[in-house]
Design a protein that fits this description.
single chain, alpha+beta, 2 domains, elongated, metallopeptidase activity, Peptidase_M64_IgA, MetalloPept_cat_dom_sf
């Protein structure tokens, strides 16, 4: 029975290695690489059984290129780009595979703001457009200034006042104005 337990523990230890990952965007025509995610610890993968094992997962780029969404390197084509995730049993294995895949190196793009990066956030401005009474028995409507910049505050509130006036001016909704805040 003890021999069976030792074999079972030994067999599970083979798969109990760490798995590391890196992700790059590769232009297959020019072999240019852009680093998407640097090497980091990730969930275990069954194909990674030793510290020297690596696995490459290639996914074609699926979004359509527009000038607003992406900037392609050197007039590249989105159809010729693919996302490549490299998994490995150690950081060295991933870096060696990455070096073979991207012999020119991988550029790190700083065009996208990280979610955990510190940001300067404008103080929200709250202004009542309609005040019909106590909020306990009223329907509160909040208008969000999505698309307006901070310098366009007066334009935003002017647009909201105009829309509110137009909505409650006609016969359909005039009787309901006292129910809204």
């Amino acid at each position: 029975m003890k021999l069976y337990q030792y074999l079972l523990v030994g067999a599970t230890a083979v798969y109990a290695l760490d798995t590391f990952s890196a992700k790059v965007l590769v232009d297959t025509k020019t072999s240019q690489c852009e680093l998407i995610e640097s090497v980091h610890l990730t969930q275990l993968h069954r194909a990674i059984q030793s510290t020297t094992d690596t696995l490459e997962i290639v996914t074609g780029r699926q979004n359509l290129p527009t000038a607003d969404d992406i900037i392609l390197p050197l007039g590249g084509d989105a159809k010729l780009q693919s996302f490549v995730e490299i998994l490995g049993g150690s950081t060295n294995a991933v870096l060696n595979h990455l070096h073979r895949r991207c012999p020119q190196g991988a550029l790190q793009s700083n065009k996208v703001e990280r979610a955990d990066a510190p940001r300067v956030v404008a103080t929200p401005v709250v202004r009542r457009i309609v005040n019909s009474g106590d909020p306990k028995n009223r329907i509160d409507i909040v208008f969000m200034g999505d698309g307006y910049t901070t310098s366009e505050d007066s334009r935003f509130f002017g647009d909201i006042q105009r829309l509110t006036d137009e909505m409650f001016k006609g016969d359909t909704f005039t009787q309901y104005l006292p129910l809204f805040n």
